[in-house]
Write a structure and sequence with these properties.
It is built from 6 helices and no strands. The protein has one domain. The chain is globular. The protein is mainly α and 142 residues long. Helix 2 (21-42) packs antiparallel against helix 3 and helix 4 packs antiparallel against helix 5. 70% of the residues lie in helices and 0% in strands.
Length: 142
């Protein structure tokens, strides 16, 4: 599964940066609230998946609130650092089904899709404001 995330990240990092900080913030908050809603919906059917969704959603919303971008509340984390952490959060979502021992259930697909989506969004976001490609690779090296 992390292979899909890494492949998505590598491919999208080479593409033009089309997601602005404002668009990235909207996607982040939507992802966080969607994870929380999934956690509530899964609570009776699959408790480990519900807890995993709440952890992923809470992490996403906490990072969004702390980031210095439109919609950020506390503005303690730079947008560039946010990009680095986004890669980690996509890997968190990707590995959550195996970590919480529900990898063989249909609910695991929620995490797989979210992880690939987060990696793609991170790869298509203009974190430095230049529009240049391979920003994630440069952020990782910095």
């Amino acid at each position: 599964m992390p292979f899909l995330v890494n492949a998505s990240k590598a491919l999208s990092d080479r593409m033009p940066k089309v997601i602005s900080p404002n668009g990235h913030a909207i996607i982040d908050y939507a992802t966080g609230f969607a994870f929380l809603a999934a956690g509530v919906a899964l609570w009776r059917r699959n408790r480990p998946a519900a807890i995993g969704a709440i952890v992923c959603g809470g992490s996403e919303l906490f990072l969004s609130a702390m980031t210095d971008y439109p919609g950020g509340v506390f503005r303690e984390v730079s947008f560039e650092t946010h990009g680095r952490i986004d890669v980690g959060l996509s890997l968190l979502a990707a590995t959550m089904p195996n970590y919480m021992n529900f990898g063989d259930t249909p609910q695991a697909r929620l995490f797989t899709g979210a992880a690939v989506g987060k990696a793609t969004v991170a790869g298509l976001t203009d974190f430095v404001g230049t529009g240049e490609t391979k920003q994630l690779k440069k952020l990782r090296a910095a």
